[in-house]
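Model it.
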Amino acid sequence: MATQAASPEKFIYRTSPTATEAFEGWLKEHGQELPKHTHPWDVSRSDIYVEDRWQPIFAEMRAKEPVNYVPESPYGPYWNIASSKAIQHVEALPELYSSSWQYGGITITEPPKDVTEEQLAERRLPMFIAMDRPEHTGQRRTVAPAFTPGEIEKMAEEVRARTAATLDSLPFGEQFDWVDKVSVELTTGMLAILFGFPWEDRRLLTFWSDWAGDVELSFARELNDTRWEIFQEMAQYFKTLWIDRMGKPPSRDLISMMIHSDAMNQMSPQEFMGNLILLIVGGNDTTRNTMSGIIHALHSFPDQRALYEADPSVIPNAVQEIIRFQTPLAHMRRTATADAELFGHQIKKGDKLILWYISANRDEEVFTDPDKVILNRENARRHLSFGYGIHRCVGARLAELQLKILMEEMHKRRMRVNVTGKVERVRANFVHGFRKMEVTLEKF
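Modeled.
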């Protein structure tokens, strides 16, 4: 990498407060300062996700106008793209509908209005998911070898052993938080293995992931500054790992792959930070929230839990169905690079388009009874949770493997997980998942 790193002894990194704790604390004092959402189809509001009442709003959109314009929101004007067909159309035209950080990147958020040009330049974080071709191609190819079928197969034994050990540590008949004890533990451990990250510090990956994925923090000016400081601490930690591995033979971890790649070994500090955030959020939040989604879905649809318990052969398809139903990332953004017509609507150069995967995965034109979990649904694989086209999730196979093994190992132990206590969802319009889920185990 182009920058030099300090030794680990010369910097400190924080482990608290969590992004959720910080934002909830800010809301208590400044909640009245939050901008208002006045448009009925402004689905950028986080309350509909934390309260799990987003479904009818998107259903109305899909029925009346699946491509529609919101002229005013706290994130500025944007187009809602709510149907599966329209999202795939946009994703299939990556030159016309750009993902590049230079136009705004991949989330609905915008920089704070009072940020200086110097700060804006410093805090732009290029990452390969927020790049167009050819830069996107070279950087994606660098990390892709970590996720080939062969590499995934090599990881399967270790994933299974870690999953088994985690499940065997859980108490029966005693309430605990599934998110913390299982979902976070398994996904953070997997990330630590992928990065070759020090095992004793692995929970830092979760801490950084949450600060990166909570786009609502942009409304809290001081927390936005804290977030940037935490990103710098994250980058500093990773730089020490980078320096340590320079000059060493290539290995299977992602940092080594970057070091030995012409496309990524001369990244700027911002690019390095951006790609770390991409890999951490992509490898952590998505799988972790689907692991929690599995439990909530089986609990909410007892007939489908009975099917799973009676017939474990449904597990591979069940994984796809629950990924569809959960949709761990609610949206992706694209920006028009030229004027265009989109299903009868005139898109202007510079317009922001929000691709609502969470809506496409409930599209009645694709999925029968889309608001139900149907573990043997024939076309469950048509979900868009991993995106579509050149930006489809590079780690999709690894996510599927982890989820499949979790369901297999639960079944092997005849483990039924009942939701018996508090369920807290993520307050966000980007990451869609659970902060807490109190459960109790029994045998089936």
